[in-house]
Amino acid sequence: MSENTPRPQDGDGTPAVGPVGSGPAPDQPRSQTPPPTPGSPLITAAAYGFAMPWAGMGVVFGAFIALMGAAFSDLGPLLVVVIVLVLAALPASALGVWWLGRTALKRNGGRAPKAVAWVGTGCFVLSALTFYGGSTVDHLAAVGPAAGLVVGAGCALVERSPRLRAVGIAVAVVGALAAPLAMPPLIEWYEERSERSTAMGDPGTDFAVLDGPDWTRTGFSDQYGRLNLYYKHRGGDRVRVETWNGTHDEPVDVQCDYPQMECERRDGLVIVREEGEIDKVRTVLPDGTVVAVFPAQHDGEADLVAAAQDVRPGTQEEREQIIDSPEE
Rounded distance, CA 47 to CA 105, Å? Predict the structure, then answer.
């Protein structure tokens, strides 16, 4: 078609617009919102869940500090206002974390922003209710990350798929409850067990136990690097058996040269008297470890010589029993 050829007319009789020989006018480009980054909703849900236990414990701890500060301040009638504000901050903070979770998930293209927000808020409340100042704060470096990781994993499962929602809720709730309730006692037990293991000394060295049929072990302690086992006799006497397995060990006849002390050797025992009364009885285990038998608090006088005669080296099984449970 030449330049002089008339252009075809539209239905209303007007010439069609556009260069000769061109097809339909191309569509104008439209502005589109970029799709969310793959994985970002899961990361958002996990980060939100990780923060919830910290937030719950932090709100309660902050409220406690605020109330204590107000109670010890001369605020007069303003104290009531402070109390009301602190109490109102608790439900307000729960509403705030719900809104935060829902908004963050919606902006990142989450599948279940409301569900994740409810789970996170529930764990926020559980962490606040189960927060115990002394025990939790002492072990916050372990409790906080553990609770955050489990709750974060639960929120990620809720966001991942509707089929995993129930599992995610269960995981998050268990994490929010188990970390502050179960971990502090478990950590304290482990620390005490480590202390008992240290007090027992090298597994290759002897330690003393009472092997008489009428003696029952009642306790354990570690004093100045020396192992102390406490025993009760069926007749009521109580004694303390001290194994010298520390770094400041002394010979079996220590103090025997003191003016007020008198030592008697009898059948492998060193009976130490102070001003005529038996103060302690010592003996030596096969590997050279010194053992001392002392009276403990009791009614009447314990027969320390008879108790010392029942002393023998403990077995490896008894060592493990003492480490695992200091009292019977």
Answer: 11
